[in-house]
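Researcher: Next sequence.
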Amino acid sequence: MPRYQGPQARRDFSRPAGLFVFMALFAGDGMAAGSPPAGAHENKSGKAAQLSEFSDRTGKTDDVPSGATPDPKPLPDDTACSSTTLSFDCLPGWESDDHLAALSVFVQDCDAGLDRMAARTGMLGVSGADLAALCKTARSVTPTAAAAKAFFETNFVPVRLEDPGFVTGYFEPAISGSRVRTERFSVPIYGKPDDLVAIRPDRRAAARKAGLSDDTAFARFNDDGALAAYPDRAAIEAGALAGRGLEIAWVESPLDAFFIHIQGSARIRLADGSLMRLAYAAKSGHPYTAIGGILIARGEISREAMSMETLRAWLEANPAEAGALMAQNRSFIFFREIEADEGRGPVGAAGVSLSAGRSLAVDKELHAFGTPIFVEASLPERAGGSFSRLMIAQDTGSAIVGPARGDIFFGTGAEAGQIAGEIRHAARFTVLAPRGSDLARSARGEDAQ
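Model: Next structure:
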């Protein structure tokens, strides 16, 4: 199997989806949240969200975000693999994986539109056009496990990434709420303000002139036409947007709202039993600050004990301090309502509904959406234990930086959230590169076109 040492240099990159569980716990100030394409969410959605004109910058170059300690469990044995073996046989767990499930997720990207798919590309050497060229074949595959397996083995070359791999998890919250303010539901979820503007490349010089850092993805225009910083979390929660009719939903507590912001999407069950679904629309533009990292630095929670559950438990147990702590994360997320389909996952950065256990958030600067990636990791038992699975790159996030860095979507609701909050594990990544792609040619020692 060819092996590939990914690039170390980083460049600007757009971000659709939302902020992930891991970011809330560990990621430091250097990880600026990215922006999404229309239709994606900020958590990932972009933890699921959206190809966009918006972009953020980050100086992070490490594969494992600052403060992270990968779980020490050993990875599946891969001694059968060598640097020259062009075979899927050396991938632990490949034979027993559900290839038909992976194919179904791959075809979702095709169905989202070939033109949109072809427009996506990645620095590793797999382009959206390479993937789109396989869509007709993928759709014609007989829906059997054997045929799906043969599709991947015939049309792709497995390329092992040498970079140390690392995975985290994310999910879609599911809570009760209301479309109108009530005594119980009094904390607002805001839609995108009409005066929020994206700092596109053609506005970057004006943003710098206004004193805005290159980490600023969104801002507003003053009355004199100059760019200025948008109100941050503390200002908005103090009423900076009150009276403008931006509230699209109401939830029970500031903690519910905060964790919806982290995930970038939510399902809200209304009093009449109907479902409302929220997806990432935009953000205030301020850099993301991980409050879990602050608690670790203060000695409130040990690094080993930190998880989404322990973070929320601390906030609930310390209500007098919780508001000020959450305000240290100045980034504020705005949402939009999407179709409330009970049977579908949140919309990811690739513009398709995410599939639990098959959708992977990746660094979209390096990977093209729709790329199949075989991930190996030793996860907790309720997350799959010895995890060897073919996943599809369908989302992204600002903490997801590096060729072998991924965020696994675990589904919707409290149980999925508990599982996702436990994941910060070492992993091995093998990209399935279309046979005619630059990455496949490079791995075979041929000149890329």
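Model: The chain has 14 helices and 17 strands. The chain has a mean pLDDT of 82.
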